[in-house]
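Morning!

This is the sequence you dropped in the shared folder:
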Amino acid sequence: MKKLSFVSVASLLALCLMLAATGSASVVSLQSLSNAGISLNSATVTVPFPTAGDAYCSATNGCGNIPSGGGTAFQWTAGDFVTSSIFVIANSLNVTGLSANWSFQDFLGGGNTETWYVYVNSVLVAQAILPDDAYNGDIGTVTGSVTFAGISPVSGGYQVYMILQNTVPFGGGSVSWLDGGTTGLDYTTQTTVPEPGTMVLLGSGLLGLVGVARRKLIG
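The structure's back. Tokens below.
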């Protein structure tokens, strides 16, 4: 009986250690790779990325779209990518900042990491370095914000995408980007400036009102 109890306690302890090892999810900070910009009349919109429906490609596992509640195929080859749809932001002049809330499943190990570059309309703005997770498959998160010089819309909108920069050696693990991510885009709003002709008409109208008022006073 005592031997059985000892075995039970040992098994329970081993289980606890396994759970502790697999529960240490990583939080990765987004790092700026662009000169900071200064925005006036700025606002922020939150858009879905990476999320269900977004396109991706893996050199070894093929291309597709992120399924609802799922993720990309596992990616570990330089050039693998995931890209958003095109976001149209009404009254935006340009985008000057980006914030991340992205989730990934991390099976990297053996000291390997993955460096992902982040682009807005083909302009490099940031990077995220995903860490060695000892092949545990934990769910990690990329967070943080970066600012940059204004990026103008292309075809009326903005597209966010990430490209893997390094190839992980065979047996070094891989990463999958998961559905449910959100991205904040800071943008500068357009301000309406009256045309010169409108200003002339406005001035003429004010002068006319002054003339009428003077005639009434004199009369």
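Headline: The longest strand covers residues 92-106.

More detail when I'm at my desk.
O.
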